[in-house]
Amino acid sequence: MTAPLPEALFIGSDIYRRSTYGAVHPLAIPRVSTVIDLCRALDWFAPGQYRTSPRARPAALTAFHTPDYIAALQRAEAEQAVSEETRTRHGLGTLPNPVFAEMFRRPATAAGGSLLGAELVAQGHRVFNPGGGTHHGFADRAGGFCYLNDPVLAILALQRLGCTRVAYVDIDAHHCDGVASAFHGSETVRMISVHEARRWPFTGALEEDAGGAALNLPVARGLNDSEFALILDHLILPAVSGFRPDAVVLQCGADAVAEDPLSRLALSNCAHRDTVRALAVLCPRLLVLGGGGYNPWSVARAWSGVWATLSGTEIPDRLPPEAEAVLRGLTWQRQRHAPRPETWFTTLADTPRPGPIRPELRADLLQLEHRMRAEV
Known about the structure:
39% of the residues lie in helices and 11% in strands. The protein has 13 helices and 8 strands.
């Protein structure tokens, strides 16, 4: 008799270990592979808990993306070049979305992981796919390091599988423009995005509501843990609870952590674990995705801690030697000679980073609370 699957499941792939966007790209760093190695070193995968991500077939990707775009992406990988027409029309072969060896296979694997995650979540599991979270992809165009939009594909899959009402929460430092465009005006998808104000892609203003489907909270530089706790209690949790979703998708980008080079927020990775913990209480059908994150130590520590929280595993105060060796073995060309705190090698959980709660944030939250009450 086949043993039942564990309640929490992790989806990974070795493709993240052997592919890169290019030596100078922000995503040249190891991310998912390091999380896998770290969790294995900590013996955090019970039998049956680690699942290998399938690669999504082109037909599955056209649930959101246009056939012409998928064909162009496959052609660009095969030819390792794009025409000027393709670059202009589809955003391929650009600095953020370059041509590289696995430029179709890698995002298709991330999308396949999120589609598998949707199937497992619909069955009642909690799932973490750290390779997912590519929230800037559009139906016919790549954008912001995202060739495909796996959050959109996962939400559509959940709805096909009977989870009609889906809440999408995004705590990446960058606004989820691709997801917002996909579900503009939806009555069955509620989007909540917390992101840094005046940062690329320069969408997601407080007043923008994606045709009534979204609550956007752009936050000022230096957002601290005290402020995030207020956001969690006064925006994220009531917005999700009030929507009464059948499933929740959380984009858990690690670029909101203080040490990230592509944002100016000041969170500890406690914020990510707190969000996962709280949403898991609200809705047992929870799909957690990765996203941004461009400091290899911050990403590995944050997402490994997310998995510990999702799977109910206690995080040690001090990492054992095998796990410490994984973190000490990382390199980062961007800051090759910069000093690094010892805690980046010896711990997973950050020390909380509390701070004052700015009146501007309180005012913005109050405005969103009024909007939520008006929708009831």
